[in-house]
Amino acid sequence: MLLVAFIWGTTFVIVKNGLNDIEPFLFLGLRFILAFLVLAALAGKNILRATLATWLAGSLLGIFLFIGYTFQTIGLQYTTSSNAGFITGVSVVLVPIIDSTLKKAWPSVSTLITVVIAAAGLFLLSVPAGQFRLSYGDMLVLVCAFGFAIHIVLVDRYSHKHDVVAITAVQILFVGIVCLGIGLICETWPVKLTPNAVRAILITSILATSLAFLLQNGLQKYSTPTRIAVVLTMEPVFAAMAGYLWASELLSPRALIGAALILCSMLFAVLSHPSSSSASVDENLQV
Q1: Which side of the chain, N or C, has fewer Cβ within a 10 Å radius?
Q2: Whole-number Å distance between alpha carbons of 245 and 196
């Protein structure tokens, strides 16, 4: 699972670089269609046996997966991969809040503490000193965090009722078809796919989507949800490290404090909400 967190964290930089040569919806469309084809090649029988209920549930989950990936990918064009990694990680904090809301229950004191810590960290990380607003890119990635959080909560409710490979493949196919359709209508197909774009599509589709999902689903039974969620909080740390090593991104002391607070809030969230964190072993926090 640490390998999965590493894959998801380091692909923030790869996606950001790939978007220099291909527009976001076309990138996502190609990425997810290819990821679906990989899953189909590995477990086509599971997908063919999927029931109508699986297709409906997978499509519902795909809507929020689409929101998460769309806002994350577009937001990466306007913010750093380090910021995007940490802000995406806020979805772990949002999960118990959304789960409590859907259950019509008041959030616990520990949940409120988690939110305050995360909000303070997000402010320090994303808002320059003397300015009281998030950057445009940070706002887009924050929307993505909400999309991923809702997706995590719904996956916790639906995934156990369906074949894991089948419902995962349906979600991936849904995102791929919608994104590719929007891209073909609204964006310009590149004259040629540059090595940079091809590398980003291949790495994110095969490693960060197909392989990471299969590893996650296969390894979940060998550990507790809380321990897996704690491991996955390393993703934004890997994102910051990759941004520093590969893209020369530097975090100011103020931003480092904010990032540390967000990481602390994520750890506090999964340790103080073991029932809610069972969903956080899903594919969110991913890229």
Answers
A1: N
A2: 18
Asked whether residue 15 is domain-assigned, the answer is: yes
Mean pLDDT of all residues belonging to the chain: 81
Instruction: Tell whether 89 is covered by a domain.
Output: yes
Q: Evaluate if residue 236 carries a pLDDT over 80.
A: no
In a domain, residue 165? The reply is: yes
Contacts of 42 (CB under 8 A, 6+ apart): 210, 214
Is the predicted pLDDT of residue 23 greater than 70, yes or no? yes
The pTM of this model reads 0.79
Q: Is residue 286 part of a domain?
A: no
Domain ranges, residue 50: 2-281
